Amino acid sequence: MSSDFVQWAQEQVQASIRVKQAVVEDGDLLRALEEVARQVIRRLRAGGKVLLFGNGGSAADAQHIAAELAGRYKLERPGLAGVALTVNTSTLTAVANDYGYEHVFARQVQALGRPGDIAVGISTSGNASNVLRGLETARAAGLISVAMTGRSGGKLKDLAQYCLRIPSDETARIQECHILIGHILCDFVERELFGTNA
């Protein structure tokens, strides 16, 4: 293993740590995350569900968070209604073919979402057109809209009721922190619903 690689790898890890430290110090982000977590708890208790969607790495994050809810995070407990809108390839390709790729999430939100459910759109730029349409449809249908983005928030910042903006402009660092706050969300929800004090 070359010392050049080790130094480069250390720099990558340090860059990730710096963004996570910025998250620690971002009171607005953490307060918004708490409010989103409390909304998720209220909606799940009322029989609602969480719909998650994004593209590429953000699609993987949507699936990851949905799996932590529907499966488990740490506690043995019943499954929670977390649904990733990125996994049904027949629906995705049919909607993309018939209506255009920008509608792949909006169509599913319209079909599956109910007032009081929560829609979580994930986009590092905050400008993915299909994520924007998905959250527009969610708001029009009476769902609670949550965006997970990078520093600027993009167009999602003004569309979503809650915008969880990671304080970075680098896609990889944003995605690393998206899954971190996804884990924090799942952990808090699980503890509140099924922990010893629930």
Notes on the structure:
The protein has 198 residues and is of the alpha/beta class. The protein has one domain (3-194): 3-Layer(aba) Sandwich (Rossmann fold), CATH 3.40.50. Helices cover 57% and strands 12% of the residues. The chain has a five-stranded parallel sheet, sandwiched between helices. Helix 7 links the parallel strand 4 (144-149) and strand 5. The chain is globular and about 55 Å long. The chain starts with a helix and ends with a helix.
Shape: globular
**Which topology does CATH recognise?**
Rossmann fold
Low-confidence stretches: none
Helical residue percent?
55-70%
Biggest β-sheet strands, sense, barrel: 5 strands, parallel
Short synopsis of the structure:
The protein is of the alpha/beta class. Helices cover 57% and strands 12% of the residues. The chain has helices spanning 3-24, 27-45, 57-70, 89-99, 106-112, 129-140, 156-159, 171-194; strands at 50-54, 82-84, 118-122, 144-149, 162-165.
Give short descriptive properties of this protein:
five-stranded parallel β-sheet; 198 residues; single chain; Rossmann fold; alpha/beta
Give the SSE layout.
Blueprint: H1 3-24, H2 27-45, E1 50-54, H3 57-70, E2 82-84, H4 89-99, H5 106-112, E3 118-122, H6 129-140, E4 144-149, H7 156-159, E5 162-165, H8 171-194
Helix pairs in contact: 1-8, 2-8, 3-8, 5-6
